Amino acid sequence: QAFTWLACCSTTHFSRMATRALANLLKTAAVPQCGVKPGLHGHIGRPSLGKFCRGRRISYTPTMVSMDALRARQPPELLQTDVFRTIPPEDLTPTDLADLASSEVMTNPAKVLKIYRRHVDSGVDPEASVLIRAFAQLGFLFDPNSFFSTADRQLLTAHKDFKSLAHDLTKMQAELPDAAAPLLLYSMACLEYRCAPLLPRLLDAVEEGLSNWRTEALTLILHSMASLGLGGEPLIFDLMDGSRSRDYGQLCKKVAEEIGRRAVCGEEEGLAEASSSTTEVSVQDWSHAAFALTMNGDYDVSADPEGAVPVLPLLIARACEQIQEKEELENSGWAQFFLYQTLYCVDVEKPACEEAVKRAMPMWIQEWLHYRWLDNIVLMAQPQGADGMQRDVDLSLKRTNTQALLNCSFGRDWDEQHCWFAGFMLEPKVALECDNMLPLGPGRPRPSGWLSLKSRILRKVGFQVVMLHNCFWGHLSEDQKDEQMLRIRADVGYRHNKDLEKRRKKTRQEPHTYKGIETKRKDWFPDPAAPSDE
Q1: For residues 99 and 104, what is the distance between their CA atoms, to the nearest angstrom?
Q2: 376 has a pLDDT exceeding 60
């Protein structure tokens, strides 16, 4: 009680008295003296603690400060929190999921990341459902129909909170359900963000349930994988533990073969016997799958082991079956873009199934797509805004006085209209392309499926292609970038047009002078002419 009384003194005067009393108490502890028995006479000549304890006596030396004394010296703010509360905190997962689904958050990438950060900082282990929902919502915000620019998407994927979200998903990949694989793959494709350590887990889930996925999901998976550049060549990822994954290079062909078998049977669901029926596969799904095969260059994929039934003509036929009138074709959105691009690429690359593909698309659809291409299709399909790496390369071209056309269309010499746009076009017939996709591992870049297809078409029509990878370009200084640009010019045989340089040379718009003697602004102007009688 004496310690409690001393600790509860709050004023300055009583605090000083308590400190002096405590010091005296420790000095006058009950320590036996030589020749003196401990007891009532053991504290000869020294004040007893009984003066402070109202008759009670303490016969031991205190070795620790009581909890009451510590709390008396704490700031009032800390006393408002009970650190010994036994009630666990409430589950924040339903609240975070509800906030992510709200209308003001659903269209704002910054608020999505803010809710993710709040969920992670809550002190509990992150919930997989919240992380999947946040990542998918960001992907849907930057889908092909988004009004956000390419630079906005690059700013998002470079943000530390987004990288933290991708890292948390990778850490808890063992807890991710298999059903989330198509969703996460599509989100990565929309964001153009290839998270290499997470992809093996998603691709394993796709391959294990290949016969159980709905046809719509398979077409979405195929298009997402092709957009991320995961088809064709050997595909091996660097994992977080320093090892490498197995080869996933043939997975796109397996998915395409499964879709082809379902297209042959005419069963839209094409699922196992135990699974339930699904909705009808739309023209969007079939056109997505057809353009995915075109991006990968898998023209020879067949629906049967003998190779007699190519998949691409089947997909084109299934898509065109659902278009009966011109109005339906005009309202088909991205399907008309994918169909016409597939038709053009087949005409340029000349695969074995070229004639079958052209016969699978009715002539009136081909003519109407050709008629509407420039004004109604390709202009709507171009990405919004500028690309960050493209602007950086453009500055290097200007510093090195390299003449280049930005986003210039190209095609064959006899094409009536162009279907493709080069990132930068130099003379003579040189194309510079910028790859922003993350590498498969350190020093192992791989362009997206779109750039891979564009590079093939460029080479087919007689261009030299130079691919600049951001995983290398972004680490160079300004001088090193200019040096690389000069080396590229020497390697490709760049030709400078001096007449064009003279025409583009900027002329001074105002006379050169010194501060303080600037030319006086003219204050006289001619009177307006009188109106004529005519």
Answers
A1: 9
A2: yes
Strands 405-410 and 420-426: antiparallel
- The amino acid that residue 57 corresponds to is R
Asked whether 238 and 244 are in contact (CB, 8 A), the reply is yes
Q: What's this model's pTM, rounded to 2 decimal places?
A: 0.75
pLDDT digit string (tens) for 452-492? 999 999 999 999 999 999 999 999 999 999 999 999 999 99
- From 197, 193, 140, select the one nearest 470 (Cα to Cα): 193
Query: What is the distance between the alpha carbons of residues 133 and 95, in angstroms, rounded to a whole number?
Result: 13
CA-based nearest residue to 272, from 216, 222, 218, 210: 210
Please give the Cα distance from 491 to 478 (Å, whole number). Answer: 20
H or E element in which residue 498 lies: helix 498-504
Which tokens sit at 313?
């003509």
CA angle 34, 37, 41 (to 5 degrees): 105
Q: What is the mean pLDDT of the segment spanning 179-190?
A: 94
Residues 6+ apart with CB under 8 A from 473: 389, 392, 393, 434, 481, 484
Distance between CA atoms of 313 and 350, rounded to whole angstroms? 14
Q: What percent of the chain has pLDDT over 90?
A: 49
CA–chain centroid gap for 105, Å, is 17
> At residue 147, does pLDDT exceed 90?
no
